[in-house]
Amino acid sequence: MRALGLRSRLVVAFAVVSVLTGLGVAAVSYLMVRDLVLQSAQDAMVEQLRADVSRQTTPAHPPTRAELDTLALRYNAVVVFGNLHANGNGIRLEDVPDHLRGTVHAGRSVVVQRAELAGLPYAFVGTALRASTGRSTGIELYRAQGLTVQQGTINELPALARMVILLALLPAVLLALIAARGVLRPVRDLRAAALRVTGGHLDTRSVVRGSDELTDLARSFNTMTAELERTVAELRRMEENARRFVADVSHELRTPLTAMTAVAEVLDDEALELTGDAATAAGMVSGETRRLRRLVEDLVEISRFDAGVASLRPESADIGEMIASTLHARGWTGRVETTLPAEVVAPVDRRRLDVVVANLVGNALRHGDAPVTVDLVAVGPEVVITVTDAGTGLPEEVLPHVFERFYKADSARARSEGSGLGLAIAWENAHLHGGSLAADNSPGGGARFTVRLPRGRS
Amino acid sequence: MTRRRPAVALLGLLLAGCGISGTEPFTYGEPLKGDDEGGGVQLHFVLRHATHPVLRPGAADLPLQDRLDLLAAGPTDTERAAGLETSLRPGVRLSPEDVGVPTADHATVRVDGATLDDLDPVASLQIACTVGAFLIPAHQALGIPAVIVIKAAGQEEVVKSTCPD
User: Fold this and answer.
1) Which of A310, A384, B66, B107 is most buried by its number of CB atoms within 10 A?
2) pLDDT band at B6 (very low <50, low <70, confident <90, very high)
3) Which of B10, B20, B45 to mutate to test the interface with A (most CBs of A within 10 A)?
4) ipTM field
């Protein structure tokens, strides 16, 4: 079971305290009021008997049976003398509890006992009738009084207490909600601030109110985000510097490289007439110059992506035709199996799609085994281009890093024909189109690269 | 569970104290007194093997000898009709010896016509309480018994006047 929230816990705690207090007060008042009500009824009964007896003349001699009847009327009570008695006061002698009669008979002055009569609560009072001297006449008087009214009053108390407890519950819950709000509002503010920071808004600060523990927390949170913001800004600045440096270096290298490329071409032409080491050296300089030029071109390209200045010039094009022309231009047509349906049209930047396809197919031809296949298919709102080779595929640990710059799957193959930036550039280009590029292994075991491009630009 | 325990205890207390419960008999204030001239002679007879007081007409200061004569004479017809008896043998004669004035708390009574063995405990109490009612003022009667020496055929018995009065 999920633990209750802070608000619910506060409400429950306040409610429990309120109800328990209410119950306690109700219980104590119930007992007190009950005793008071009964006491007052008994007091009234005894006082009435005392007044009635003091008004009457005490019988001057032991009464006869007939005189007992008269006394019963006069005293409005059950009157007992020896074995004789006369009923009165609406009750019979048999109704009077034996224990009460025994106590009165033993000479106790005025005795009261509560007992049930026919299922109803009664208070009985009994006394020996005494002369003004205090001497007992041997005559006993008994009266009873119903306590039904008092019982009604007492029975109303629990309902009353219930109502009061329920009424008290309302302000208790209200207070709990107010208290919960006081605690929860700063917590909610902090949570919102944390979410904003998570969303990248490092300039978010929580409002610091009051001077309690939650305020300390808000202050610590603000210190933390300020420090985070400073560190991230520093890191960004450093990264920006590094990128600009690469871009600048690449640009600076371009001009001499153009001249070197021209020289290398001359060397290539002349190489045919050279022999021995000179021919080897000429070929090496020419090859490395070309490789260096490609690396610099790729660096300049990726610098544009990093600087956010890479621009897309989309035009509606038949993707199948474009792929075919890319393969043809590279001289790969015979080495690649293609499934290129016609009429698959999407808005693409021709140059960039050419770069993507050339990079993926070139990569497959270099690192995978034949046959390399290129499939084109339109799926829903997307155009999907799949480049698959028949090699051993990409190891599981390589897959997450395959689009990283200069990442080499096989460190032993440190030098290759590629610049190490081809897949990174292809990935950037696919994303620039609003599409994606993913790498995995085909069921046949070879590496598979999947480009998804949107068919319509939103 | 821990939180519920006091509530349960409280509820139990409430239920146990609910409604109007029956009680044992309990005494309630001063004795009731009627309105009369202040006379009367209290004698003690027997009802269901225990002493039982009766208040006969007469002067409150009726001499002890007269009271003892009334006691020895036994219950009247009216009293007998109410079930009162006496444990004293017919023909017994009681006479006070060494009796102080009322408000003294002891006296000696001589019994003629019976031995101590003939007097059962209830009979002794009848004598003691009747004498006690003469000696001790009524407002002192409760709880402060008189000490009565009963002499019969050369023997003595000490009895306290502890009767319902």
Assistant:
1) B107
2) low
3) B20
4) 0.84
